[in-house]
Predict the 3D structure of the following.
Amino acid sequence: MRIIIVGAGAVGSYLAERLSAEGQDVVVIEYDERRAAQLQETIDALVLTGNGASKKVLEQANADKSDLLIAVSNSDGANVLACFTATELGTKTTIARIEDPEIREGADRLGVDVVIDPSATAAEELVGIVGLGGASEVIQFADGKLVMVGGIVAPNAPITGGPLRDLRIRQAEWGWVVAALVRDGRTIVAHGDTLVRTGDHALLMTTDDRVEDATKILGLKRRNLDRAIIMGGTRLAELTADVMSEAGLSVVIIDEDADRCTALASRHSQALVICGDPTDPDVLADLDLGPKDVAIGLTGWDEVNLLGCLVAKASGSGMAISRFNRISYVGLLSGLGIDAAVSSRLMAASAILRFVRHGQVEQVATFSDTDAEALEVEVSTGSEACNKTLFDLNLPVGVIVGGISRDGTTFVPDGSTVVRGGDHIIFFSLPRDIEESVALFTA
Amino acid sequence: MTDTEQLSNQPLAINLLKTVAYVLGSVLLFIAIAMAASAVVSVLYSEYETAMWILVSALITAAFGYTTRRVVQRPTSITVKQGFATVGLAWFVFSIFGALPYLLSGAIPSISDAVFETASGFTTTGASILPDPGVLPKGISFWRALTQWLGGMGVIVLGVAILPLLGTGGMQLARAESPGPTPDRLTPRFQGTAKRLWIIYAIITVVEMGFLWVGDMTGFQAVIHSLTTMSTGGFGTEANSIAGFSSYTKWVITFFMFVAGVSFALHFRAWSKPLRYWKNSEFRLYSLIIVGAIVIIAGGLISDLEPMEAVQDAAFNAISLVTTTGFASTDWGMWRPALQIMVVGLMFLGGMAGSTAGGMKTFRLGVLSKAAYADLRRLVHPRGIFVTRFGGKRVTDPIIEAVQSYFLFYMMLFITSTFVLAFIDANASEGLDLVTAATAVAASIGNIGPGLGEVGPAGNYAGLPDLAKWLLSSLMIVGRLEIFPVLVLFTRDLWRR
């Protein structure tokens, strides 16, 4: 597939790297010369310097022969214009990231086929993390019936008690499987003889009614949180405030700007809006933070979010989650003083990857600290995998099947499970095996 | 278990050696296939014993390649620096494997000589230790030409074109092997670019074969000379290079040497739109340098030769030197001294970036002179802002710095190596004169082949001491890979975690 990416910011360069490593023909258009040169050094893609909305540059990028244009520059207007021009030139499909909901309306008439709004997805994930307390990710598959739970394995967690094969026998009454471990930056695809250690970032697959057991086996302590302290008055903060109140938590929003606070207070009557510096210990002290509070740093600045979270933890908050713009912080800083991290950019990238794979792949989840992905595909009748047991399939070593959804029932399979046509299969895969395994189930 | 883990956290040196082994594994398989092809040529000419020995060499090479590919796992990712180092190390290793057919068949019995001939082949230098290549078995002669053809566009680039060698890492490797500062991209992915470059290279080579075969060359000679013209290599089948062939043949080779000195990416782009050649400023500068050199040499020769002969000799040898091919239609050593100095000067220039030529490359010469001119203007207008432009595009400071430091390294390498070569020689039985030592070094770094004096077109490198041959073999590889991929091996940062 020929893909043009406009804007080499966090999302754009992340996508360019992922897609080119997968073997797609990628052309990146970036306005900043230095950033363009830097990117060209590291990825196998063509990087053009120029304005991605200009007809001349898009022609140079062969927009007429491209299948997809992804506009993820930091300007909503430039993104829409790039999609418009590319559609005029003959690009088949366009995706734009649009932050402002008012611009989003009517964008389809301007040649934007798909709008990505990462904030909404990020808010959903935040609720998942808060709801479970202690988990670093909660990703839903098969309409929410299968869940991937990620977390840092606690000392003396039941899962550290021997090879996974033995543990599966001991805990056989509920369906679960460890997909992978991330240890010291390395991804280990779990097998029967794998030993889980304290401090590993474990990704575990189970059905939605067993999420509680999953957190228990990882040793994650469930905290009953009843108040969310949201730092910053961004759009993501507002969306989060809404979903948190819906989830039954009381909400406090702290923002420094007095005018914005007034606007926030008029829009969110259920929330307590405080005007002050979210990193100021005095401001937080007034709130009497306790173990049932969760602090969520959602301002536009990574530094402020991290500092605010650290101050909140030091002031007694039970949990702290920070949002980062720089994708690499998410994996690097989770667990170091803050309990979890989210990135709306990473979510935008995941949403776009999902779209790129669309047709064969129903759902894609990407992770902050590994290049591996969790994918959901529908098994086509007549594919190589159809009517074979998982054991006989000889899946690549970098692949592990985590769940199957069949005729409304969901379960975690084992080696003797027979794959049938129409099954929704959820598997975890290292990047090099993604293509092969998708083909196995769908070709 | 380990094969399911990503190995990015290992110490650099281990990851580097793994990458080298992995790349070698693939490249050695290609080299083995090329050897097998040479064995087939030997069989066609009924040289059964030679064929057998070439086949044995192919099997040894393939066995090594296959085993390393089996044993070493695919490394995950490599940095630009590691890519450079990998290519540097890999070239040294496969120059040794390439010597097997010479050694086993007995065509070149000494190890130093055989490795010298192979390095000279892969690097498209064309320097030889053979007094008369005409006595070689046909299969060995073909292998000799084939090493140049493979080395011209790059064995690793071929690997990237055919196998998706190392994914993104492949691009870093190919960059280190491609002549010129940054390779021109014909497609978003490097694999596509590498494929197109190799295809156009092969097509032009076949066209040249046709033209040569029509003239006074035998089919075999036409094949050999096309392989070594397009790679700007310069190995031939005759003791006196091209001198004995007809005027038609000389003009055909002159034309194709010129073609080989042009960027192959430009050939690809200009395939349907020939005007694009002239629109390219590097091409214009390259043509200008060549025309200038021809005029000066022809002017110097005209008093001794017929006008047509003078123009022919001037054009052939000037293009041969600028493109670093190293064919000779006459012995430059017999020219008047002023022209001999001209010959030495031309050895440093080189063809366009992205061609198969060695030397400094036209792009760098253009940037160097423009940057120097900008410096000069800065003296006159201390507050002026001067931007160096080449081909209508701004050349950024990092590129100018890289070009200047390349020039510096090139010259330092030339001077110190000349000194070292003279020193090695002072301890040998016979002494070499300065002209021989200096031009042997210049012709090796620039991948030209023959120099002046004892190593001139009429002579060869056989008389040099073994140590000198090893030094020159290394210099050829250093020159072919444009210095940095080899020099980076000597930096401490590379080996430290």
User: Anything to note?
Assistant: The CA atoms of residues 192 and 369 of chain B lie 34 Å apart. Residues 9-260 of chain B form one domain. The first helix of chain B runs from residue 12 to 44.
